[in-house]
Amino acid sequence: MKNILLLFIILFGSKFMGQSFTVQQNNMTLSGLSTSSDFSQSTYLDALANDSLTWSIVSDSLPSMWDFSLCFPNCYPIGSNSGNLIITNGDSYYLNCHIYPNNATGEGYITMEITNSSGITEQVTWYGVAGSVGIVNEFFKSSSEIKNIYNLNGQIVKKFQNNKIYIVQLKDNSVVKTFINN
């Protein structure tokens, strides 16, 4: 009897208390000019079981002049901070954030928390940079003080590319985050 009960718990227990979804990318970076009407970055939520999800914005450090909107999978109007989604096992759902900088330079982030019917949560964060925040273009392009240049995936790169964010390690081992503008 104990073996049958144990087998039942193993086969069916995880379905009742497990994660019913996974997000393909939990941390994303968006960047553009402050004069751009908007810029966006997308990922997907993969359903591992049929479930009902809720989502809400739990943190927002965007400059006050900026607006944002979300698509999950339908696009919501600017100012929407929460919603619901019914997911079907095996399906993928579009998850997108648009940032509207409204001609204001700056940087900030938005964090969405997604919760399933069992109370299990996962967070997705979009980090946005508009305009010339952190730009030190000419110094870093010609400086002999650079020890390493890292992209946002932590990989060492040999040179800068325009409109990208980098982490620069200097010869004295100090670290600077910079956005290289064109």
State the gist of this model:
This protein has two domains: 16-130, Immunoglobulins (Immunoglobulin-like); 137-180, no CATH class.
Structural domain tally: 2
Share of β-strand residues: over 45%
Q: How would a crystallographer describe the biggest sheet? A: 5 strands, mixed
The CATH topology of the largest domain is Immunoglobulin-like
Number of discrete helical segments: 2
Task: Report what the structure shows.
The protein is mainly beta and 182 residues long. Helices cover 12% and strands 48% of the residues. The protein has a five-stranded mixed beta sheet, with no helix packed on it. A four-stranded antiparallel beta sheet has the order 1-3-7-5, with no helix packed on it. The longest helix has 16 residues. About 7% of the residues have low confidence.
